[in-house]
TrEMBL record:
A Pfam family that the UniProt record links to this protein: BD-FAE
InterPro entries linked to this entry: AB_hydrolase_fold, BD-FAE-like_dom, GDXG_lipolytic_enzyme
Keywords, in A-Z order: Hydrolase, Membrane, Transmembrane, Transmembrane helix
One GO MF term: hydrolase activity
Species for this entry: Micromonospora viridifaciens
Protein name: Acetyl esterase/lipase
Length: 488
């Protein structure tokens, strides 16, 4: 009986399945996809300790997802087979499902596990989700191309011009790779606070018997399961004064409600630009004059939609009143200041604090007795000539609704019951036009509110420019004198 050789179609049928399991080439598309999911995993793993303190079940889930993602990446790199690529895509898709259920449409219980990652940049979770999408799409394209090539037979496996095709493929993927690298840098930097420690502090103390002349960190409120931190700087002689509590001045950091934190170091501190608000010299001067100084974190937008930052700032004032005896302060003498987004929040707090609110310490008032607004926006519908990045922050923080922007604009919230205002703005400010502060001061005065407006020549979106007039020292003196006059 003679042996017969199989026909060419039979050979192709035998070889095609084998080709499907052959190792894939580590091309630019596959590498970019692996880089994207790795960066996404590192973003949600960076604040894992903070997630554990707020919602430990989600921390366990994130740890499992991270192990799965990094494990599949290692397996694909070791031997990039089609099945392993499918598993890597499934792991990235699982992260997207968790993100959607806890962030996109929050149907799962408990506090959002993404808030710690968003504590410095309010849209880091969106970056993480976007990186996972890039990974899923990239893995899908790789798998489809391999499946199509396997179906065509072994003769389709070897390209006629490998070098040219590789160069063209790398050029096509290069823009996506650059986007992935930039997103990874921003996302991981935000989630880890520039390696300074992500999320919320775990070593807060009780708001009583705080050491004089020292900084202590307390948890001032827990809103929707999210702990919010406040740094309390007690005056050198102690917070209490003979016969009467000390006045308090609360500082709200800037960053357009989207960026920054209260810390004095790390990426969040850089994004907040505390120097622009004169926080270091003002804190020293106010402490030296017997003031207790408080500096707060608040939930950033869009991670926590507006008006979450204002809700948090209001809760901070109620916390100070509720613990006035422990802190040694006078609950009837609380002032607030901030620059840029912090100035905006300070103005809104001064104008709406008497309306009350719900949440922790609801029995206390959120009203303040003095406001210093440093170049904060006052009309959110007046940003057509602002730089693109500033308009992006406004879009991310508030949205595009004209009605929402109108209601969130201090100039539209003025009443005759507002406390005294000191408004300071740089004459060369291109981020927030000085005209906003001019009109705001006029609106306050028209309502019968004490409002002083100071334009600083030689500076822009900061009050710490060498050679400005009034000088940084003179502006500092001005703010201290204002607080001493209004909170005396």
């Amino acid at each position: 009986m003679s042996e017969t050789s199989p026909s060419p179609p039979a050979v192709a049928a035998v070889l095609a399945p084998a080709a499907e399991h052959r190792p894939l080439r580590r091309g630019p598309l596959l590498i970019t996809s692996l880089l994207a999911v790795t960066a996404g995993a590192l973003i949600y793993l960076a604040p894992l300790a903070a997630v554990w303190r707020t919602a430990w079940p989600y921390a366990l889930l994130f740890a499992a997802l991270g192990a799965a993602q990094l494990g599949t990446v290692a397996r694909v790199l070791a031997r990039p087979a089609s099945r392993r690529v499918v598993v890597a895509a499934a792991a990235a898709l699982a992260v997207l499902v968790v993100w959607f259920l806890t962030r996109g449409t929050p149907v799962l219980p408990g506090p959002s596990p993404w808030i710690p990652a968003d504590s410095v940049i309010g849209f880091v979770d969106y970056i993480c989700a976007g990186l996972q999408v890039i990974g899923v799409v990239g893995f899908g394209i790789v798998w489809v191309l391999r499946t199509v090539a396997a179906a065509r037979g072994p003769e389709a496996q070897a390209p006629r011009r490998p070098r040219l095709r590789r160069a063209a493929g790398a050029a096509a993927v290069a823009p996506v790779t650059l986007v992935v690298l930039l997103a990874a840098f921003v996302g991981f930097g935000g989630a880890s606070d520039g390696f300074a420690g992500a999320g919320f502090p775990g070593d807060t103390v009780a708001p009583r018997h705080l050491p004089a002349g020292k900084r202590s960190t307390v948890e001032y409120c827990r809103v929707d399961g999210v702990p919010l931190a406040m740094d309390v700087y007690a005056p050198p002689g102690g917070a209490a004064t003979p016969g009467r509590g000390a006045p308090a001045a609360m500082y709200i950091h800037g960053g357009g409600l989207v960026l920054g934190d209260r810390k004095l170091s790390g990426l969040g501190a850089s994004l907040s630009n505390h120097e622009a608000a004169l926080f270091p010299p003002l804190r020293e001067r106010l402490n030296a004059n017997g003031y207790l100084v408080a500096s707060i974190d608040y939930r950033l937008t869009p991670a926590a939609p507006w008006p979450a930052p204002l809700v948090d700032a209001s809760c901070a004032v109620r916390f100070l009143r509720a613990h006035a005896a422990d802190l040694g302060i006078d609950p009837s003498r609380i002032g607030v200041w901030g620059a840029s987004g912090g100035g905006w929040l300070s103005s809104m707090l001064g104008l709406t604090g008497r309306q009350g609110g719900s949440g922790p310490y609801a029995e206390q008032s959120s009203a303040v007795q003095a406001v210093v607004d440093m170049f904060g926006p006052t009309d959110l519908n007046d940003f057509t000539d602002a730089p693109p990045f500033i308009r992006f922050l406004l879009w991310a923080g508030i949205g595009t609704s004209t009605a929402t922007r109108h209601s969130a604009s201090p100039i539209n919230c003025v009443t005759s019951e507002a406390p005294p205002f000191l408004i300071v703005h740089g004459a060369q400010d291109e981020d927030v036009a000085p005209r906003q502060s001019v009109r705001f001061a006029e609106r306050l005065r028209t309502a019968g509110v004490s409002a002083e407006f100071v334009e600083v020549a030689g500076t822009g979106h900061t009050l710490a420019t060498p050679g400005q007039h009034p000088s940084t020292q003179e502006v500092t003196d001005m703010v201290v004198d204002f607080f001493m006059a209004t909170l005396r």
